[in-house]
Amino acid sequence: MKRAIHVVFWLSLIMGIAVVLLRKRGEEARPTPAPVAAPRLAPAPAIPDAGTDTVTDTRATADGIKTAERKVAPETEADFLKKIKENVRANPELAVALARQSRQQFGDSTQADERDKLLVDALINLQKIGAARDETLYYYEHHPAGQYRQYLWSMTGARPAPPSGPAAK
Q: Hey, what domains does the chain have and what are their CATH numbers?
């Protein structure tokens, strides 16, 4: 019996060594994959200042990097809203710049409610959640009866401040 145990032990040891050597030999025989080059990233599109009327839009394509200049200075608030809506998903940096420029130029107008909602959407698309929450709180302050209050709360989780003062009691 003792002899059988020794034989099994030595055979198991030899088999184990053989398996390790065969695996190591198989790894050496496998071709190593060629290193993958990192994708070439295009620089971020320029965000226009409030006074500029063109923006350089740089995008990476299969052929290389393409640059184009576009007008971004709409004349009316409706033009601003149209441009912001077009760019909320396609170019959120531009949408943010346009919304802030519109806020500066038109202030608390009749379309400010929608403009401020679109600004939050653009910030969410840029994955700037903290800034989106800050803008949501701005929205609650400036549009107490705004039609997008529930939507912005569900998108950012930012809640309006509870009313204070004698009227709250």
A: 54-161 (1.25.40.10)
